[in-house]
Each structure stands twice: as C-alpha cells, then as structure tokens.
Amino acid sequence: MAFKYGVLLFLFWFLLSGHYGLLLLGLGLASVALTVFLMKRMNVIDHESYPIHLSAHMPAFIVYIMREIFSANIDVIKRILLPGSNPISPQMLELPLPQKTDLGRVIYANSITLTPGTVSVNLDKDTILVHALAKETADELATGKMASAIPDYSVGQEGR
Amino acid sequence: MLIIDILSWLCLGAGGVIGVIGAIGIHRFPDFYTRQHATGITDTLCAMLILSGLVLQAGLTLAALKLAMIFLFLFITSPTASHVLANAAMHGGLKPKLDVTATGGKS
Predict the structure, then answer these.
(1) d(CA B107, CA B100)
(2) A103-147: pLDDT as tens digits
(3) Boundaries of every domain in chain A
(4) Is the ipTM reported for this complex over the cut 0.85?
(5) What are the two backbone dihedrals, phi and then psi, of residue A123, each rounded to the nearest 5 degrees?
(6) Which residues of B touch A119 (CB under 8 A)?
(7) Residues B21, A76 contacting (CB under 8 angstroms)
C-alpha cells in the first residue's frame, strides 16, 4: 500500500515539476521516499485519507455533479437578479443520511454544499441538517435524488 | 487559434460577470445563511468558467494540468469551508431568517 502511494506521489511530483534531469529526478524521488516514510510512521496511509479506490467512480460522478451545479447556479442567479419573479424562501430541513460510511457521508454533504442554493449545516448519526435558499430547492433535495446518485463508497473500509 | 481565443475570452468574461452577480447576491440576501448561497456561485460556476478560460489560453501544457488540479482541489476544499462556516454559525447560536409562510421547514 505504501509503495502504491509512493508511486502516485512521485507521479504527482513529476507532473507538477515537469523536470526530467537526473539530479532533480533523484531529489524528487528522495523527497517522496522521505514523505512516504514519515506518513507510514504517522500511520495515516489508509483508504480514508487516500481514497484512490474511488477513482473509477469519479468521471461519472463529475459529469453528474457538474450538471447539478450548472442548473443550481442558474437558479440562484435568477433569484439574485430577478427577486420579483423568483423570490427566496429560506428553509431548514432535516434529511435522512442513507450513507453508512464516513466517506460516503462526507461526499454527500459536500455535494449538497457544492450545489449553490443548499448548504449542509450539521451532520448527525443518520440525519443531515440543510439550509436551502428556496422552497423549490429544498423540495428537490428532499426527493432524495441526489442521495441515491451518491452510493455508499464502502470498498476497503469498515462502516462506522 | 482564433476560435480558441474567442471561446477562452467568452469563458473569462462570463466568469467575471458571474463573480459580480455573486457579489450583488451577498448584498441583496438578508442574512448569513442565505448570503452563503450567493458565495456558492462564485465558488463554483465563476471559478469553473475562469479556470476553463485559462486552460484554453494555456493550451496542452503543464500549466493546463496544474489549473485542472487547482479546479479539483477547489471542489473539495470550498464546500468543506462553507460547511465549517455554516456549522460554526449554527453552534454560535446564529438563528437563520426562515420563510415562515412555507410549510415543512424546521424553525
């Protein structure tokens, strides 16, 4: 596992630096090795801090969330510029949290916050408190469409 | 090249306009929680458009890749920061101004 992250880190270093001289590659490799060594000592290499097992889900998720973000943005912009025909009606609502793992919950809560018009305010064991800008946004979120679009990414970690 | 330039400037211009709209929203909305939704616009669509415009300017270079990474990190950090802000406000006892006429809300 540590080796895998070392390779990933080195790839990252290479992409960011773009150097391929022998000396600089060596220095990069040395710093990556030191970092991996320290992380191993600190015991922070696990599936939660490095969720690379989710990479396969990412493209579909990005397409989905971009769509949501785009339509939510249009909605909020309308409410800002045309308050007459699109009034705001702030709501607080409590939604069930179907995800059982911490990572799944965080992804769900962050997706709610990322779409303008809704902000996750508080997370409890199985509910999430959300502030919504308007009744329509709140109703849309309450249908649970977004919750079902974000599966419980539980591969490689225990539910808590 | 001209087409890419035009596209890039369209993105940058639209991003700038949306940033200004977000600023207008911050002034127009009544309380802390609703204002956060206005900043949500600048966090997402505005940043998205400006970064895409810059990527189009950069072309297929390392700079474009770095911009894409900024984009990715921004999409993880900005909702986290927003959530922390809202959470802190709630714990600090700041009551949101809610629409009392609507049903189903929790006050």
Answers:
(1) 8
(2) 888 888 999 999 888 999 998 888 899 999 888 888 888 888 888
(3) 2-42, 52-149
(4) no
(5) -110, 130
(6) 33, 36-37, 40, 82-83, 86
(7) no
